[in-house]
Amino acid sequence: MRYLLILIPLFLTACTTNLPGTVALPEDPLQLEVQDFVQDWKAANLGDVSRHCSAREIAGTTVHRTVEDDWFDWLGLCPRMENGCSQRSTCAGRTCTTGTVIHSNGAFRIFVSPGENADGHRYTVRHEMAHALSWCSTRSEDHGHHGPVWSSGIIQPSAQ
Hints:
The chain is α+β, with helices and mostly antiparallel strands. The protein is built from six helices and six strands; from the N terminus they run H-E-H-H-E-H-E-E-E-E-H-H. It has one domain. The strands form two sheets. Strands 1-2-6-5 form a four-stranded mixed beta sheet. It is globular and about 45 Å long. It starts with a helix and ends in an 8-residue tail after the last helix. 32% of the residues are buried.
């Protein structure tokens, strides 16, 4: 019994996902962009996101501001830095990324690179949300890179 009491905290710790980066606060412009994009998606009638995702999953979307090490150690991607692509040798010849989205612990997690986009990553967040909501509505066509999302104009951040 004593060993079981020791193992329970270890098991709970092992099952907890420590996501990289600093989570944007609810009033952060990037976090506000998430909810704004969800409304724009619905208004443009681009697909019923409730087909494959719950409102809770979508509302639980968080934006994570990351550092260069997070991209290599946790995400396995080459990040965009202030002066272009990361200069680490493992990035030579690889595409540099400004953002990515994953589904983890019942919600979407958007990670933005340390390199700042001209608009402060608002465009990146909207682009990543297009990937997420495409998955929720169709699970087959990815509107993050093409399709009706681009022609509707909703990727463009609203004036804030």
